[in-house]
Design goal:
The protein has a 6-stranded antiparallel beta sheet, with no helix packed on it. A 6-stranded antiparallel beta sheet has the order 13-12-22-21-18-19, with no helix packed on it. It has a 5-stranded mixed beta sheet with strand order 4-3-5-6-9, with no helix packed on it. The chain starts with a strand and ends with a helix. The relative contact order is 0.09. It is mainly β. The chain has 1 helix and 22 strands.
Length: about 290
């Protein structure tokens, strides 16, 4: 995607994404140039199948490219310088334009593809920070009553592409949901009413949460708990079988058991006899 920039950098450059891009001093032009050498409707740049063509609209000072006067359907290429009166405009390709220090600008892997609305063009490469809006000073100009002059901004953050609504009247939607700020991922659809862009980016991009923190549900916190003690082992079940009865020694006879009882009786009789003798003695002595 090519960009139209002022050689003297008096105004920010604009992306050439419209099928018909008008240039002049009148307020209805896509690019308004406040200079008395520029006619109200000075020239048009036409976008046809990815190619740009320039034609003069009968201006009093004329239009030329590299000193060659242009009347109709002059094909433009990157690096061409267009002269409108005293004003010089340059067709540039930011992907290949050298920057300070002589290093080429880093190629971006992110782009927007218009898939709905009035914009008819191929993908728009995203570089640095870019604004979207109705103003000709925006990097991506989208015309329409629903668009604010500075509607939204695209920028790189946390390794991905992020879009921020700039307080627009009608809002910015991502995948049909209105957002204030949103981290984008490949395949997302950005919509401004009828104008829709498809986001293209590197495969495997690590993307944080897609929507604002204020839209997130409250997170659930899990805390560590003390280990649950093991349950004691269950008591052993008592056997229903009666314990074995101790066996009596076979050597003990019934007579032996009877002899034990007789000995006990003899002992009692002996004790009684001794007690009686003692009582008799005491009586005799006492007499």
């Amino acid at each position: 995607m090519l960009k139209l920039e002022f050689k003297d950098r008096r105004q920010p450059g604009v992306w050439l994404v419209e099928s018909v891009f008008s240039v002049g001093s009148g307020s209805k032009n896509n690019l308004v140039i406040d200079d008395d050498s520029v006619a109200e409707s000075h020239a048009e740049i036409l976008l046809d199948d990815g190619r740009l063509y320039l034609r003069d609209l009968g201006s009093f000072k004329g239009t030329s490219v590299a000193g060659q006067e242009v009347t109709d359907n002059f094909q433009l290429r990157s690096g061409d310088v267009i002269s409108l009166g005293r004003v010089e405009l340059e067709i540039s390709d930011p992907k290949t334009r050298p920057v300070a220090g002589g290093h080429a600008k880093i190629k971006s892997d992110w782009s927007l593809m218009p898939i709905g609305g009035s914009i008819q063009s191929r993908s728009i490469m995203i570089h640095g920070s870019m604004t979207i809006g109705r103003s000709v000073k925006c990097d991506i100009v989208v015309d329409g009553e629903y668009m604010s002059r500075r509607h939204a901004e695209l920028s790189f953050k946390e390794g991905g592409l992020r879009i921020v609504d700039l307080g627009s009247s009608n809002g910015t939607c991502v995948n049909g949901r209105k957002v204030n700020e949103c981290q984008l991922k490949p395949g997302d659809k950005i919509s401004f009413d009828k104008t829709v862009f498809l986001v293209a980016g590197p495969v495997g991009t690590n993307i944080p949460d897609a929507f604002d923190d204020e839209d997130e549900e409250e997170a659930t916190m899990f805390r560590a708990v003390a280990p649950i003690p093991k349950a004691p082992p269950p008591p052993k079940r008592q056997s229903s079988v009666a314990p074995p009865v101790p066996q009596v020694d076979n050597n003990v006879s019934a007579a032996g058991a009877g002899g034990g009882k007789a000995g006990m009786i003899a002992t009692i009789v002996l004790v009684v006899a001794i007690a009686a003798a003692v009582v008799g003695y005491v009586v005799v002595v006492g007499v």
